[in-house]
Amino acid sequence: MQVSGSSNATTTKLQAELEIWDTPGQDDWNQSWPQAFRNAHCVVICFSVGWEVSLECVEEKLIGRVLIIHTCHSQWIGTINHFGLTDIPILLVGCQRDLRSNQNEREAMKNSGERFVRPEQATGVAQRINAMSYLECSAKTWEGVREVLDEIALTVWVGASREKARAAKEEDRDGVVRSRVRRWSEGAKKLFKG
After folding, report:
1. Residue 152: exposure state from Cβ atoms within 10 A (0-12, 13-18, ≥19)
2. How confident is the model over 12-67, as pLDDT tens digits?
């Protein structure tokens, strides 16, 4: 099953229309990942901050299946390289942020011996899976949702700028391209952060 939809992320100076596909993370869907990612400009990987196992699954699946391509020990390597998936930026998003402030949820977690995912835990996973950033949000309270959409739009915009830089690289091989990418990235942050 996959759900698709669109959203608009508007900042003070730039508006972006995002097409978002919500795909399942179950093992039986893993063979379809490359097809879903074929035209992606950004991959947003979500987990619940109220369920540590969901964060562990993120790291296990990505390091075990996707990031292993860098060491050439996976059957995914042909598919991923064929579709050029190694360059897709990843964002890690902790969902259900509102659970941490819910007294009933805190009591239930305490009684069950489970813990909420701490932001520093998720940041560590984000670093290990080479995610561009880690964010948290709550669909229930809408806390952080705007920031997630803005970060997606920023990541896609910077990626488009990097594509321009790659095209310019054919003309300019003396190191100037890196500074152009840096300037475009800084410009994008100014657009999105106001």
Report:
1. buried
2. 456 667 777 666 655 555 566 666 666 677 778 888 999 888 888 877 766 544 43
d(CA 47, CA 117): 10
Task: Please check whether residue 138 is in contact with residue 97, taking contact to mean a CB–CB distance below 8 angstroms.
Answer: yes
Whether 87 and 40 have beta carbons less than 8 Å apart is answered as no
DSSP string, 104-127: HHHHHHHHHT--PPPHHHHHHHHH
55: Cβ contacts below 8 Å, ≥ 6 apart: 47, 94, 117, 121, 122, 125
Write out residues in the chain with pLDDT < 70, as ranges. 1-16, 21-39, 61-87, 159-194
* Contact (Cβ atoms closer than 8 angstroms) between residue 123 and residue 132: no
